[in-house]
Amino acid sequence: VLYGIKAGEDISTVVYTGDNVMNGQVLEDVFFYTAVASMKPAENNIVVAGNHDFGNGDGDYEQLRKKYIFDNNFYLNNKIDREYYYKVIDGCYMIVLASEHGSPDNFSISKDQLDWLEGVLKQAQAEDAPIFVLAHFPVYSIKDHDYRTLAQLLAKYDTDLYLHGHYHNELKPSSFYNWHGVDCINVPRCTEVVDYEPGD
Fold first, then answer.
1. Alpha-carbon distances, residue 121 vs 4, 72, 92, 113 (angstroms)
2. Cα dihedral 53/54/55/58 (nearest 10)
3. pLDDT digits (tens, 9 = 90+) for 18-54
4. How many distinct helices (H) and strands (E) make up the chain?
5. How far apart are CA 82 and CA 85, in angstroms?
6. Are 120 and 132 in contact (CB under 8 A)?
7. What is the separation, in whole angstroms, between the first and last Cα of the chain?
8. 3-state SS, residue 178
């Protein structure tokens, strides 16, 4: 899949929406990040952490979080200091959200992260920049707050697109949906991207 992406034309950014490895083990991460770094399918490679990357409910979340930050900086030179961050690429705000515990089922997002997000969204809106929010979990799987808190925030600042993974589904019409005013795409597994043909 990475070779296929690299063979494309004018691809500046590739987003990996989480569950990039099975259990967040060091060897798994080495294989994944080394492959991305050596093939470099695009100039910008944005890796979102999924529940499997953070141990899928097992292991030390804080240790796995620190490893995720280290891997992004060491292998991809992404220069991040926490699990949620943003980058401006070709004038577009690419905002990465992250669950703040290792639950395999729920998106745990703190008030601090929501406050940070609103600040970035305000900045992007002031610049009239396209806004893409990238996360592993869908908006409606938030545990700590009413899911409408995030949905309303994204809608308020005219977020262009919310991309998420988590379900490992094939690409189909229901992968594209609007949730309380937010346009979303449930990104499929890599193999399903390869196998998908328009019109299916």
1. 33, 23, 12, 12
2. -170
3. 888 888 889 999 999 999 999 887 889 999 998 888 8
4. 6, 8
5. 7
6. no
7. 20
8. strand
Neighbours of 153 (CB within 10 A): 18
Distance CA 46, CA 181 (A): 25
Query: What is the identity of the amino acid at 112?
Result: D
**Core vs surface per residue 62-96: b (16+ CB within 10 A) or e:** eebbebbbebbeebbebebeebbbbeeeeebbbbb
Strand partners, 142: 107
Instruction: Report yes or no: 116 and 126 within 8 Å, Cβ to Cβ.
Output: no
Phi/psi at 74 (5° precision):
-70, -50
Task: Tell me, yes or no, if the pTM score tops 0.90.
Answer: no
Coil/strand/helix, residue 195: helix
Name residue, tokens 């529940």.
Answer: 51
**150-166 confidence digits (pLDDT tens):** 999 999 999 999 999 88
